[in-house]
Amino acid sequence: MTAGMARRLKRYQPPGTSPGTLPETGVKATLELFTYGPRGTRKASPPSVAAALALPRERGWLRVIGLDTRVVEELGRRLAVHPLVLEDILNPGQRPKAETHASYLFFVVDVPVLLPEGLHEVQVSLLVFSDLVVSVEEESNPFFATVEKRLALGSGRLFQYGPDYLAYALIDTAVDHFFPVLEKLGEQLESLEETLLQQQDHVLPQLHQLRRDLLQLRRSLWPLRDAVSTVLREENPLLSPEVRVFLRDVQDHVLYLLDILESYRETAASLLELYLSAVAQRTNEVMKVLTVIGTIFLPLTFIVGVYGMNFHHMPELAWPWAYPALWGVMVILALGMLYAFRRRGWL
Amino acid sequence: MTAGMARRLKRYQPPGTSPGTLPETGVKATLELFTYGPRGTRKASPPSVAAALALPRERGWLRVIGLDTRVVEELGRRLAVHPLVLEDILNPGQRPKAETHASYLFFVVDVPVLLPEGLHEVQVSLLVFSDLVVSVEEESNPFFATVEKRLALGSGRLFQYGPDYLAYALIDTAVDHFFPVLEKLGEQLESLEETLLQQQDHVLPQLHQLRRDLLQLRRSLWPLRDAVSTVLREENPLLSPEVRVFLRDVQDHVLYLLDILESYRETAASLLELYLSAVAQRTNEVMKVLTVIGTIFLPLTFIVGVYGMNFHHMPELAWPWAYPALWGVMVILALGMLYAFRRRGWL
Amino acid sequence: MTAGMARRLKRYQPPGTSPGTLPETGVKATLELFTYGPRGTRKASPPSVAAALALPRERGWLRVIGLDTRVVEELGRRLAVHPLVLEDILNPGQRPKAETHASYLFFVVDVPVLLPEGLHEVQVSLLVFSDLVVSVEEESNPFFATVEKRLALGSGRLFQYGPDYLAYALIDTAVDHFFPVLEKLGEQLESLEETLLQQQDHVLPQLHQLRRDLLQLRRSLWPLRDAVSTVLREENPLLSPEVRVFLRDVQDHVLYLLDILESYRETAASLLELYLSAVAQRTNEVMKVLTVIGTIFLPLTFIVGVYGMNFHHMPELAWPWAYPALWGVMVILALGMLYAFRRRGWL
Amino acid sequence: MTAGMARRLKRYQPPGTSPGTLPETGVKATLELFTYGPRGTRKASPPSVAAALALPRERGWLRVIGLDTRVVEELGRRLAVHPLVLEDILNPGQRPKAETHASYLFFVVDVPVLLPEGLHEVQVSLLVFSDLVVSVEEESNPFFATVEKRLALGSGRLFQYGPDYLAYALIDTAVDHFFPVLEKLGEQLESLEETLLQQQDHVLPQLHQLRRDLLQLRRSLWPLRDAVSTVLREENPLLSPEVRVFLRDVQDHVLYLLDILESYRETAASLLELYLSAVAQRTNEVMKVLTVIGTIFLPLTFIVGVYGMNFHHMPELAWPWAYPALWGVMVILALGMLYAFRRRGWL
Amino acid sequence: MTAGMARRLKRYQPPGTSPGTLPETGVKATLELFTYGPRGTRKASPPSVAAALALPRERGWLRVIGLDTRVVEELGRRLAVHPLVLEDILNPGQRPKAETHASYLFFVVDVPVLLPEGLHEVQVSLLVFSDLVVSVEEESNPFFATVEKRLALGSGRLFQYGPDYLAYALIDTAVDHFFPVLEKLGEQLESLEETLLQQQDHVLPQLHQLRRDLLQLRRSLWPLRDAVSTVLREENPLLSPEVRVFLRDVQDHVLYLLDILESYRETAASLLELYLSAVAQRTNEVMKVLTVIGTIFLPLTFIVGVYGMNFHHMPELAWPWAYPALWGVMVILALGMLYAFRRRGWL
């Protein structure tokens, strides 16, 4: 698969493969387990899922970093997760979504990273059980460092509410990562706009890249909005009313981001129109200059050409005042043309 | 953060910050308390929230001018306001919204100000309790002077109904501020249109700025519409049926503003198309002039060039009538071309 | 306020004015009262609202022509109309709407008039009571002459049903006025289209004006559609089932008008694109002519220029057949170019 | 009323005319009555509605060809049809619609005909009673010949089900007429596309006409879709469940036609963009040729002009190798230019 | 019917044909029957439908390859399928759809194939009975080879659940075929984008073809989305809750494909705009070169023309320093022009 546009087409399996067949990723995952409760938080690095689930805990956060087929399969077996969910976890490039199953909630969220070579998105899947949150992250990343720190504090809302609050905190963190990305793109838009209003050189490729990044962000945010609304609409004991209030705040953020995004998209489209109009306007000005010059000098050149002819019988050539008279005619002609152009507003 | 487009991206905190953490704004707020009832209105300038809430009152309006972290925090503590609401109050650049909580209603409204350097928006947050309205305003402003005056009168509907009517009066005032702004933009659109139909010089940057202002107004008005509808749909004892009628009138105003706004946006887009078409048309006319001149004089210049050659054997040069005959040919050629151009509609 | 676009921004009062404060219009209204029943119709010109309401009647139509603050205020007081309704009546430029109140229905309708200087709209407000219709018209106009005539007949459906049928008849008449306006605009569109397909001179300003008129009609018709649907959806004893059938017919007309309107708008947009394409095409043709002429004569002029040089040692000048040979070369060159152009499809 | 765009604005009466007033069309209708039942089908040509309704029948289809005011009025009187329905029947150019009345269903359908001068639509109105279908057709046409044939067979589903099935068969036939029209337009689109990709001469007017035809078809099909859905949603004893299944098939066809139509519309829009891009591209190529020629020959012509001057003191003129040296300089200059153009990709 | 656009207009019968009349396709179908159950899977090639249905089976999959009127008719008779369903099966080019009938479910799905000459779609119809799935495929194809293989395994979910799971597996396989097609189109888009940003030669026809393919895919995917939602919304004993979960996964895939598709469509549209802007920009640059050259050399050529005139009385000609002085003037003039161009940013 080439880079760029097609990059986000999720890894897919040959058509007709039995659904729920897990793709072989060849990746080894790192596991981290945070167990937390009134007595504080402990962090462990269990060698396997079995070891992780065997550890005593009140509430836990099992972090799987890397899409490891083996680990996800074991997760599925031990926690009774539907094979289609496991398949979604292992195929990055999913639409963000939220599904309610009998014993767990399933979330897929994208976290955007703005690399120099363009926008990159990391998929994070969350399984929320009544006493455990399992997060499967596409690659190692510093996204959740702040949540870890809040866990390390040993007190706060994370300890007041259940794993649903931890899940909320992770989703909220993921959504928060859209803010600096969008701010960056907004700044790029600003600077493109300034460039364009001044000289408009070479803005087209950047503008195109920017539109593509905005389009990609859009593809992450619209489904996220739907996903969060769906969860909020459904009754589910896994989501306490207190945490619902917080999740509504996430939805508010997503709506806000979408507002900004859509207005950036519109501004980018309007910039292109502006560019096109400005180029047309400049071409018009360039043409005017050529036309003014051509319209003045082509006739004059013809006239002097006439008296450069070598006919034996050209009476004007012998007239004593012919030369200055011709200059007079030519100056009057040129001034007349200039006057006509000024009246048409071309000068 | 640079100015312009990105300006309105609300102040955000590092991703992963615990929700409800109040940002440190470093601003000192001014407090004003209006207590009003059958015995008239008294205005006080309490030094702190505690002092304000301790004052005896029947109904009150506590005005906090400036986003002071300390003051908002104290408000939250003493009036049991949800931390996410406090966070919204302190982060200007929110989407307008309306939330119903158990003991209070929460509104966020933008008030537009058209400064010479572009559109500016001031966020106003309202907390509506059963006997108190708290307004937190982003900066000192003359928006609510008329409401103060109506309070000072000591009678009228403000004294008939509860704080919900006061809240309505404030929202209505905020919405009313969109009218002169939109009128101003409408006038700019008018004048751009006239300029464009006459000479079209340098209209592009203004047109672009205008479209951006309209886009920004749109981002304030659409969510406001949703917010007001949401409040009107929900049953809530904090909002009496009489005041609901008035709030429906606010919604009507917002719909009206949106109608105008959308038609301005469409007109602005159509102006850009008009501009593009006009430039194309002018380029076409400029080209026609150049083409007519070129097509007439290039062949003529060639002909006179021929007889300027210095070959020893050029029989025509010696013919006595050659010179006048050539003039005849050239005039016929030029007239023929002019006739052809006229037939094509180029002259 | 300037003319044109901003013209329709409704007269608004300073932000913060107490809602329901009636604007001082300084207009004197004319009153007409039609009382009708089984014994026929009588027409009176009462000097005041009080006098009008004192006249005995079975069913009545009180026509107020002119937005007279004094008269509307008295109407409000005597018929217990909500102050916000009165405010709407006195501020022309409202969105068309329908409101159901406890003892009356309130309609706002726009009647379009196509003046030579552009589209003009007259606001008509209707208050429908169980035995009376009050119409307040922005200015004197001949719109309702046919309804008056039908009343004068003394029989027909107007006499069978209640005032709701009279209100329907007035709204229907208002909607009917859109037909000739739309037909006129359609004819303009037709003629612009023909002009454009032939010579496209100066169509841009008319096309722009047409698009603006269509945009304005749209702003009258969409809210009207919503208003009529709202009334039809709600249960209300003021509207009998028989009259509902007729009102559904009005809605049908509005939908039909909207269909036509939207297709006109699309045609107008497509005309602009057509214009742009045609101009681009013509510029292309003009350029081809210039290019063909330039490409043939610039090299030839260079060649003859060469032999116009005065070098002492130019052997060709003395050759006896040089002159005719050069003519041969130049003719072959020119023919070769013409052939190349023909092959490229430029001729 | 002029031809073309405005043509489809339905015949309307002066604003304010009493609703249900039947327009005087001045047309004489032809009547045909098909009575059918287990004993086969009989066809009669009754002189009047009264005569038609007096004929004994089990089930009947009364076909009225031509919008005859007299006949429609009598139909209304004898079959108790609402005057607004009669008005709709007599005013062709209605939106397709379906209305359920107490004792009958009312359908309006458009049948498209693609004449050489453009798209034409014929309105067919259907009144469906429990034992009779009345069809009123705008003009004589061969649309329903196949239905007549099926009736003549004396057996089949038409004889199994009631008049609702006959109505369905007529609507189905009307919808089926859109297929060949759309196919024709699709072929035109194809051929335009090929023309455009080859030479693009004179495609603009055809493309414009095509877009207008598609727009008009759209105005027939969208309301038809709504009409059929409305009938299918409502409970009505006049429509048996078996026939509902068939009507759902009609809806399916309409959806299919709309799919095709919308994709044709999009293709037509994209063709115009393609055209614009192709013209811009060609202008660019034409300009390159002119620029290459101009840039080479203008400087060369200047140089040879220099040595055509007649100054007495021009030392170069006497140099023996001046002439060939100048040729060398000129050739190098020309080759250098050509090289520069090739590097820029202009050749 | 010509190739290309109109190709997908489904084979239709003369308007007015009795609905459910099966078209005569003249095709001979191949039949395959898979009977499967706890004892494994057996594959047979029955000569006729009757023979196929007579074979003993627990669960079966009857595969009909080729649209054979005879076979479909017999299917309809023996399995009591509604004639309209049979008609849909035999008319390829249907909108994808799902219908629930009393004793069976009916699905129409398109399978896309990307041939070198463009996108091709194969219609697959499914009839799902309580113990049998009948698939009718437009032409022989390798789509379902993987499902056959899974059947041949003799175990797995296909053997756990009923024929509804088999139907799901077939639909899922069909949907899976959109992935490689969309990936291919995405790669084409990528490569077009690169071409365009470099040299933009001859991208227009490919871009146009790509947009058409995307439009066609859209016409397959949107109705499919509706169809699957419809089936999921309805209660139906033919679809077990377990299989519903899987079908929801199919819907998820379709939504994902639509997301990608729409963003490709938007990218393609934006590429065309980019192309147009780039061409305009290049024309502008070409014009600048011509204008610079023309503006410098046209005046100079005029000047040298002046001194090429043959007037007897031209005093300058005899001045000794005239020639070098003129060179000085001309060089200064040229440099002045170059300076002016540089200041305007043209060089």
Can you offer a commentary on this structure?
Five copies of one chain form a homopentamer. The first copy, chain A, is α+β, with helices and mostly antiparallel strands and 347 residues long. Chain A has helices at residues 49-54, 69-79, 83-90, 145-153, 157-160, 163-176, 178-198, 204-233, 241-306, 322-344, and strands at residues 30-37, 40-44, 59-65, 97-100, 105-115, 118-128, 132-137. A seven-stranded mixed sheet of chain A has the order 2-1-3-7-6-5-4. The radius of gyration of chain A is 35 Å and the shape is rod-shaped. Residues 1-7 of chain A have low confidence and may be disordered. The interface between A and B is large, with 67 and 67 residues.
Given this structure, which CATH class of the largest domain in chain A is correct?
Alpha Beta
* CATH H-level superfamily title of the largest domain in chain A: CorA soluble domain-like
Beta strand % of chain A: 5-15%
Radius of gyration of chain A: 35 Å
Q: Largest sheet of chain A, if any?
A: 7 strands, mixed
End-to-end separation of chain A in angstroms reads 55 Å
Globally, the shape of chain A reads rod-shaped
Which chain pair has the greatest contact? A-B, 67 and 67 residues
Q: Segments of chain A where pLDDT lies below 50 for 5+ residues?
A: 1-7
Beta-strand segment tally of chain A: 7
| Helix-strand makeup class of chain A | alpha+beta
Q: How do the strands of the widest beta sheet of chain A line up side by side?
A: 2-1-3-7-6-5-4
Oligomer status: homopentamer
Order of helices and strands of chain A: EEHEHHEEEEHHHHHHH
Mean pLDDT of chain A: 87
Count of the separate structural domains of chain A = 2
What is the name of the CATH topology of the largest domain in chain A?
Beta Polymerase, domain 2
* Alpha plus pi helix count of chain A: 10
